[in-house]
Design a protein that fits this description.
Layout lengths: L4 E3 L9 H5 L4 E4 L4 E4 L7 H10 L5 E3 L2
Antiparallel strand pairs: 1-4, 2-3
The protein binds iron/sulfur cluster.
Length: 64
């Protein structure tokens, strides 16, 4: 089981950059108007890293 990805929902501005980059990892929640992490056993680390670097408010993190 790989590391988990988390989004700090309080900080997310719903820009959808992460959803466009990694649609298999992140999805847009229409109700929240924010991105959420799709539940999975593992996540593509390269795509997660790219999303972390691209997020304008730096609210995507690996769970410690
Ligand atoms: Fe939210 Fe960051 Fe994803 Fe934009 S890139 S939707 S701010 S988590």
């Amino acid at each position: 089981m790989g590391r988990k990805v988390i989004i700090d929902t309080e900080e997310c501005i719903g820009c959808e950059s992460c959803v466009e980059l990694c649609p298999e990892i992140f999805e847009f929640d229409e109700g929240l108007e924010k991105a959420v992490v799709i539940s999975a056993d593992s996540y593509d680390p390269a795509c997660v890293e790219e999303a972390i670097e691209t997020c304008p408010v730096e609210c995507i993190h690996w769970e410690e």
